[in-house]
Amino acid sequence: MNHPMLSPLRGCHVFFAMLLALAAAPAARAADPASLPIFDAHLHYNWEPAPHFALEKVLALFREHNVTGILATSRPNDGTRALVEAKPKGLWVVPFIRPYRVRADIQTWMDDPAIQDLIETEYRRGYYAGVGEFHLSGKAAATKWVKRTVDFAVERNLYLHAHADDEALEILFAHDPKARIIWAHTGFSTPADKVAAYLERYPALWCELSYRYGITDGGKLTPEWKRLFERYPGRFLLGSDTWISQRWDGYGGIMADYRTWLAQLPRGVAEKIAFGNAERLFKR
Q1: Can you give the three-state secondary structure of the chain, one letter per residue?
Q2: Residue 159 domain-assigned?
Q3: Could you state, in chain order, the average pLDDT of each consecutive group of 10 residues for the chain (284 residues)?
Q4: CA 103 to each of CA 40, 106, 123, 154: distance values in angstroms, whole numbers, following the listed order
Q5: What is the domain count for the chain?
Q6: Whose CA is closest to 89, among 56, 53, 65, 46?
Q7: Residue 196 CB neighbour total at 10 angstroms
Q8: Which residues of 14-23 are buried (b: 16+ CB within 10 A; e: fewer)?
Q9: Beta bridge partners of residue 163, listed in sequence order
Q10: What pLDDT sits at residue 67?
Q11: CA 138/CA 164 separation, integer angstroms
């Protein structure tokens, strides 16, 4: 039988234990996200002029930095095909068709009918989820061949990965409002309030954050970007943009920088940006 004088003490012990548990819970949820898997939504494994790393070294780099998925593109598309055909264990490869054969195509693809042939030929391989990354500035997005690329993607439920300024982004959606666009670099320096306006205006727009300026100040999330991530947690993706050798050499630092500011967000928001949004978009 319990002594009546001990019951209040036992009640206090239970109460304080509950307080301690509640205090510990937020700390657990705010733990360092070093263990978070990351989906790299802007990955180039270029074979022109030549791969910087052999395929096995690239795959080892992903394992080292807990990158468990990639949006894979290359110039030409040989590098992407190599990643897909390797069927790497523990790595989810989402291939996109790059509309470039050589670097010079960046400046001319939007007026070149041969590029549309390239896109349609690659698509017949049966495993591509999108087209891009491609570069567009201003009214260069208004050509009939760009519109044909947009129409092709919409008809086949493909994503477009667009390195575009604000004007070109708006033209792409004007071609077809049903286009699903991943905005490479989120305009580089488009103000956060304008990014928010685009996200409201275009429900099929997602923002990829490689080379995106102004997100942090001295390693700390700026208030406007923290608000933006918390308001639209389902609309952002991370990326490395390994377009040159130096980006491969600094790959670990790129991922570490992301994890620094992901740790400043609520865990659920960080998980969506790190990998959850990619799973929702690309899992079939």
Answers
A1: CCCCCCHHHHHHHHHHHHHHHHHHHHHHHCCCHHHCCEEEEEEECCCCCCCCCCHHHHHHHHHHCCEEEEEEECCCCHHHHHHHHHCCCCCEEEEEECCCCCCCHHHHHHHCHHHHHHHHHHHCCCCCCEEEEEEECHHHHHCHHHHHHHHHHHHCCCEEEEEECHHHHHHHHHHCCCCEEEEHHHHCCCCHHHHHHHHHHCCCEEEECCCCCCCEECCEECHHHHHHHHHCHHHEEECCCCCCHHHHHCHHHHHHHHHHHHCCCCHHHHHHHHHHHHHHHHCC
A2: yes
A3: 41 41 44 79 95 96 98 98 96 98 97 97 98 98 98 98 98 98 98 98 98 96 98 98 97 97 97 98 89
A4: 22, 6, 21, 26
A5: 1
A6: 56
A7: 16
A8: eeeeeeeeee
A9: 135
A10: 98
A11: 8
Query: Does residue 216 lie within any of the structural domains?
Result: yes
Predicted TM-score (pTM) of this structure: 0.89
Q: 70-86, pLDDT tens digit by residue? A: 999 999 999 999 999 99
Question: Per the domain annotation, does 27 fall within a domain?
Answer: no
Hey, CA dihedral for 211, 216, 221, 227, is it positive or negative? Answer: negative
Closest by CA position to 97, among listed 54, 127, 141, 67: 127
Contact criterion met (CB below 8 Å) for 172 and 150: yes
Domain range for 266: 34-282
CATH number at residue 185: 3.20.20.140
Tokens at residue 256, please? 């570490």
Tell me the two tokens of residue 34. 């070093």
β-strand 216-217 against 67-73: which pairing, if any?
unpaired
Tell me which residue has tokens 């439920």.
Answer: 157
**Given the structure tokens 């978070």, which residue do they identify?**
36
Residue 62 counted as domain residue: yes
